[in-house]
Structures are given as C-alpha cells and as structure tokens.
Design a protein that fits this description.
There is one protein chain. The protein has one domain. It is mostly helical.
C-alpha cells in the first residue's frame, strides 16, 4: 500500500464507521472501482483498533457506569437503569456474534461486490429517510426493552451480510422506528458497536496470526492513529448536530453515492 492509500483508507474507516453511510462499502469500493489492491488483514486490524479506541474513549463515562452497574447487579445493589442497559447491549450483540460467525465465509465470497453495495446504499438510505421523517422518536435510551434490543441487534446482522447497508445506519433506523429519539438511537448504536468491533478485531488478529502475513508497521501505526482521530471527531460532530439536521443529509449522500455507483457499473 502507498502512503496515500493508507491515509485515505484510514480516514474513510474512521469517518464512516459511525455515520449511517457504510464504512465497509467505502473500504471495498477502492478495490472495486479504482483497482487498488486489497488492504490486507493487518491494516483491517489497525483501523478497527483505531475506531474501537475512539468509541471507548469518547463514551468512557457511560461505559464505566454501565459495566460497574452490570457487575453490581449480581450482588445486593440489584437492577438499575445502567445495569439493564448493559443487558440490552449484550442481547443486541449476540445475533451478530452467532450469525456473523456462521455466514462470514459466504459474505467474503459472495457479498463484497459493487452491485450489492450500490443497491443497499440506495434501499437502506430510503429506509433511513422514512424512519427519520415518520417515526415518533419519543423514547430515551433507558426505555429500551429486551425485544427492542434484539430487533436492533438482528438489524445489525443485515449490515454484516450485505455491505453498503451500514451497521450504524440500520441500527439507528430500527431504533428510530421503535420510537427512540435521535440521540438515544445514535448512542445505543455507538455503545453496541463496542463489542462488535472488538469481536471483528479479534477475528482479524486471529487471521493475521494464522496466515503469517508480513506486517508493514509504519502503515499499521499510521492507520490506527488516523482512524482513531477521524472516528473520535466523527462521533463528536454527529452527536452535536444530529438534532438540528437529522438524517436527511446522510440520506442525500447515500442516494448520490448509489446513483454514481450505478452509473459507473453501467458505463
């Protein structure tokens, strides 16, 4: 990988991981459209570690409160809002860990192509617009129940199977459709990304160790740092402006991206 490819791919991963526009689509497209070589397992690990560090550090207080309350719930303290939220995050994560593991080989062979990305970019962009425009959006993050958590978790599987869907996009979409307000839908999506990204990173590390891939440590360190900075800034920006601008700008971006992809594929 050239230094330009490292910089662009790391920034793309960091900027798109938590926006509802699909990071996997943007990382797959350079090889599909521009003819770039695959970035390799080591670089995938690096950018995932960078985004994981960003979300954990940004939500460090919430993560600490949830973990502390969850462990204490096994003792005399009992159930609290934070401990309950911890259980809902676990429930939301299980479908991705189980189903994602079972279908990972299918996804890598059949789903990573530009036609699927173009289609899901448009379809799930329109669904995001509908949820943003029509959903009630009255519930807070502490009003999630186990069924809502499970449905949001199952929606996350769709993003794993069909690149271009956007993990954050579809989980926010389902959260909005279930009545969560924008801030709560976004925060739950970000919090539930922590175990998923950690699991993906662990899987990539296993592949890296088992294949013995040669590591370019300069690219790894630069990719980790840039994806961390981009992801942290992206989370901060998104939570600050989401109430004012809603999801519409991201819907427009998805539709334009989808149109551009279809034009390229049909050219």
């Amino acid at each position: 990988m050239s230094i330009i490819e490292v910089i662009l791919l790391a920034l793309v991963q960091g900027l798109t991981e938590f926006l509802p526009i699909s990071s996997s689509a943007h990382l797959i497209l350079p090889s599909q459209v521009l003819g770039w070589v695959d970035q390799g397992t080591a670089f995938d690990v690096a950018v995932h570690v960078g985004t994981l560090l960003a979300v954990v550090i940004y939500f460090r207080k919430e993560v600490g409160d949830i973990l502390g309350a969850w462990f204490k719930s096994f003792g005399q303290q009992g159930k609290t809002d934070d401990s309950q939220l911890g259980w809902w995050i676990i429930i939301a994560t299980l479908p991705s860990l189980i189903i994602g593991y079972l279908v990972k080989d299918y996804v890598e062979v059949y789903s990573r192509n530009a036609w699927i990305i173009a289609t899901t970019t448009v379809v799930f962009g329109l669904l995001l617009w509908y949820a943003d425009a029509k959903a009630k959006q009255i519930k807070t993050i502490y009003q999630i129940n186990w069924l809502s958590a499970l449905l949001i978790g199952l929606s996350q599987v769709v993003a794993m199977v069909f690149p271009g869907t956007s993990r954050s996009g579809i989980t926010m979409t389902v959260g909005l459709l279930l009545g969560l307000n924008k801030q709560s839908a976004a925060r739950f999506s970000f919090l539930m990304s922590i175990p998923v990204i950690a699991a993906a990173g662990s899987y990539y590390i296993y592949k890296l160790v088992s294949t013995g891939e040669v590591i370019n440590w300069n690219a790894i360190l630069l990719g980790t740092a840039l994806s961390f900075i981009a992801a942290y800034a992206c989370i901060h920006f998104f939570l600050k402006v989401i109430e004012r601008m809603g999801m519409f700008p991201f819907v427009v971006y998805r539709l334009l991206l989808g149109a551009a992809l279809f034009t390229f594929l049909l050219w």
